[in-house]
């Protein structure tokens, strides 16, 4: 197949003057190279496209592809991860990963939990606050955990995300709203084990690839899988492979993750993150239908490597799932 590759290149945005934090979710140059090499090795012709504006320019020039391998996160708006899928839908060009509806929904962690709660998936309590004063209406007890409602890569998460005094909650929420220009989701702080579950496939054929437990080391920011801990994961975090066949808590986490994946309509590959409450029950936190796939640094490939699934095989599984939507 002739496969286009859409992405937001972090180095290009940094050259344009955007900050490290603003570009934290974007891809490194070597991620693009790795995907390109994998697609070529699998026998496809790969053509780099770039970000959404570059895609629109290429389409205007008449370029077309059998499939687009899309990992672009987008820069602006709550629907930024949906922009490229929506553009490709206009031209009836199939692409990897989820459609615009799922991309928009799942970036908003509050809306995602509303849908999953309706489907009886195990989620924690939550409140989405558009201003700090709304935190006064919170109906569940603390300590509380606060984060921007629509960010990834741990942006906006640090030890101050844990708020133990209800009187401090409005101020802490207002601080995050001011910094990230978006509502804040307030949840109970979950003190238990944290898992990342890797999933490939779509619908009923989706399956769990494996699960890693996120273990924070002594030099990590305490109690939170924060932006800093993620950025410096090689020094601050231990990723421990765990097995549902040996650990009932892990099995429950995998079942919950897969159920959420199917309810939300996620496609091809990604991750779901869960954390246990004080009673040891794993609760869904968020899903990433556009998970990072840097071969050595991103959680999903890390998980695959631990399972003896090489990078080429991961890309092939994603491509195989997406190819079911291709009509040549």
TrEMBL record:
**What EC number(s) does this enzyme carry?**
6.3.2.4
Q: Which Gene Ontology MF annotations are present?
A: ATP binding; D-alanine-D-alanine ligase activity; metal ion binding
Answer yes or no on keyword Cell wall biogenesis/degradation: yes
Q: Where is the ATP-grasp domain?
A: 113-320
Q: What are the GO BP annotations of this UniProt entry?
A: cell wall organization
Q: Keywords for this entry?
A: ATP-binding, Cell wall biogenesis/degradation, Ligase, Nucleotide-binding
Family membership? Belongs to the D-alanine--D-alanine ligase family.
What name appears for this protein in its UniProt entry?
Answer: ATP-grasp enzyme, D-alanine-D-alanine ligase
Q: Which organism does this record belong to?
A: Desulfocapsa sulfexigens (strain DSM 10523 / SB164P1)
Q: What are the top taxonomic ranks of the organism?
A: Bacteria, Pseudomonadati, Thermodesulfobacteriota, Desulfobulbia, Desulfobulbales
């Amino acid at each position: 197949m002739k496969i286009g590759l859409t992405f937001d290149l972090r180095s290009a945005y940094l050259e344009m003057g955007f900050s490290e934090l603003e570009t934290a979710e974007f891809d490194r140059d070597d991620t693009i190279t790795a995907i390109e090499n994998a697609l070529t090795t699998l026998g496809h012709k790969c053509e780099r496209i770039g970000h959404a504006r570059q895609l629109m320019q290429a389409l205007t020039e008449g370029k077309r592809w059998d499939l687009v391998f899309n990992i672009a996160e987008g820069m602006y708006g709550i629907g930024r991860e949906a922009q490229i899928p929506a553009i490709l839908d206009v031209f009836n060009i199939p692409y990897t990963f989820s459609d615009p509806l799922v991309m928009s929904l799942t970036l908003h962690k509050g809306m995602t939990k509303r849908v999953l709660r309706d489907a009886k998936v195990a989620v924690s309590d939550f409140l989405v606050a558009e201003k700090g004063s709304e935190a006064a209406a919170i109906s569940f007890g603390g300590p509380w955990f606060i984060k921007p409602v629509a960010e990834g890569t741990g942006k906006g998460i640090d030890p101050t995300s844990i708020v133990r005094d209800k009187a401090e909650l409005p101020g802490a929420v207002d601080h995050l709203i001011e910094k990230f220009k978006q509502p804040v989701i307030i949840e109970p702080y979950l003190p238990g084990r944290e898992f990342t579950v890797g999933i490939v496939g779509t619908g009923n054929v989706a399956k769990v690839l494996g699960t890693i437990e996120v273990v924070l080391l002594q030099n990590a920011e305490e109690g939170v899988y924060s932006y800093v801990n993620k950025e410096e994961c090689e020094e601050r975090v231990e990723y421990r492979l765990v097995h549902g066949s040996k650990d009932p808590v892990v099995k429950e986490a995998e079942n919950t993750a897969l159920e959420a994946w199917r309810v939300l309509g996620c496609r091809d590959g990604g991750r779901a993150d869960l954390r246990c409450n004080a009673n040891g029950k794993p609760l869904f936190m968020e899903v990433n239908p556009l998970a990072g796939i840097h071969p050595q640094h991103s959680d999903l490939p890390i998980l695959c490597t631990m399972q003896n699934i090489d990078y080429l095989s991961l890309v092939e599984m994603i491509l195989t799932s997406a190819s079911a939507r291709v009509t040549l």
